[in-house]
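thought: user wants a sequence for this fold. calling inverse folding tool.
action: design(structure=
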């Protein structure tokens, strides 16, 4: 007779579990429905309640290794989503680094970034507390973009933190073929930091550790050059200055896709014939482009072209004053394919040829 209460208790417990699972499923469905409904209607998502699937990562310039000591994206409700830490990063500006699958899987758009890091080329600690535009980030996370796959669309699913010399901090919202810069600021030197936070069991001096890391990551010649000239953040500051700009492709009969890479780390993939002449908007200057295109005769080609980033930025500064009420135009002429491509930038009355450091064009 003692078994009846136990059976009843077990039944009640099973019922409670089933109800809890149902409530969780309903909550998840409502979150999905709220996100898709907001995206479909065009109304901005509620940054306090809308949830998205996104993951944090960290990046740094290829020639400026960094290490995050502590950091987190802070959501409007105060919840923190931690950054990957304790790995030396320098995979290239804007390129997502190590991704840690942080829980919860679905979460809101962050309203702040707190980060402390070490810059090896400067042998210095920095810290920053950077406010973020949560509604702008939420709008990007809620909006699908076209991709050349059977699915037809993809979503932004990453928030990438970029760390550059002189304390520069940048944040991008990233997806498969689109990176959008949403914030940039400058952190402060953190002179109170204990250098052994780089590695708790360090047995060599700070100078030895820094020199060994730079030598191993970048080479002995870079270590020698740093002894004579401190690294500068000027390029990364200048790269984040937007101006009305239109990137165009000439000499092609049509294109399948054009993917522009900008100096500030943004990536923009455009599809179909409209990609030849997209509308002007506020952009950084492009420093690379890849495209699949056909010439008038019907032959298809693939091109990968990289520009000299320093001289391209210099040309933009030179032409900015001549553009006045018209945008700068960066034109890639592929009419000489498969042998060559010509790249230029023009303002209203002046055209400047741009230097390419790579131009690979081959028949598909």
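)
observation: tool returned 364 residues.
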């Amino acid at each position: 007779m003692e078994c009846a209460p136990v059976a009843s208790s077990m039944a009640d417990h099973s019922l409670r579990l089933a109800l809890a699972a149902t409530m969780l499923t309903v909550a998840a469905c409502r979150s999905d429905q709220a996100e898709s409904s907001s995206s479909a209607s065009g109304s901005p998502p509620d940054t306090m309640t809308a949830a998205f699937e996104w993951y944090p990562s960290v990046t740094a310039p290829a020639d400026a290794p960094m290490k995050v000591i502590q950091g987190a994206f802070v959501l409007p409700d105060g919840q923190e989503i931690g950054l990957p830490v304790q790995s030396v990063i320098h995979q290239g500006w804007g390129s997502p680094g190590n991704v840690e699958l942080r829980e919860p899987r679905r979460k809101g758009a962050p309203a702040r970034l707190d980060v402390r890091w070490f810059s090896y080329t400067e042998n210095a600690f920095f810290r920053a507390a950077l406010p973020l535009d949560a509604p702008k980030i939420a709008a990007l996370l809620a909006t699908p973009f076209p991709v050349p796959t059977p699915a037809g669309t993809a979503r932004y699913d990453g928030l990438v933190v970029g760390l550059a010399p002189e304390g520069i901090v940048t944040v991008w919202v990233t997806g498969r073929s689109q990176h959008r810069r949403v914030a940039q600021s400058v952190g402060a030197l953190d002179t109170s930091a204990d250098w052994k936070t780089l590695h708790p069991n360090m047995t060599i001096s700070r100078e030895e550790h820094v020199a060994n890391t730079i030598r191993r990551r970048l080479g002995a010649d870079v270590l020698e050059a740093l002894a004579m000239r401190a690294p500068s953040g000027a390029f990364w500051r200048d790269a984040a200055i937007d101006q009305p700009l239109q990137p165009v492709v000439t000499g092609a009969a049509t294109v399948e896709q054009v993917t522009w890479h900008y100096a500030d780390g943004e990536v923009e993939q455009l599809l179909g014939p409209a990609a030849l002449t997209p509308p002007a908007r506020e952009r950084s200057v492009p420093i690379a482009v890849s495209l699949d295109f056909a010439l008038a005769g019907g032959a298809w080609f693939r091109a990968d072209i990289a520009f000299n980033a320093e001289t391209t930025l210099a040309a933009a500064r030179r032409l900015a004053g001549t553009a006045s009420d018209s945008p700068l135009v960066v034109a890639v002429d592929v009419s000489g394919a498969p042998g060559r491509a010509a790249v230029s930038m023009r303002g209203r009355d002046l055209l400047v040829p741009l230097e390419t450091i790579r131009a690979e064009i081959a028949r598909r």
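thought: summarizing for user.
answer: Here is the designed sequence. Confidence is low (pLDDT under 50) at residues 1-40.
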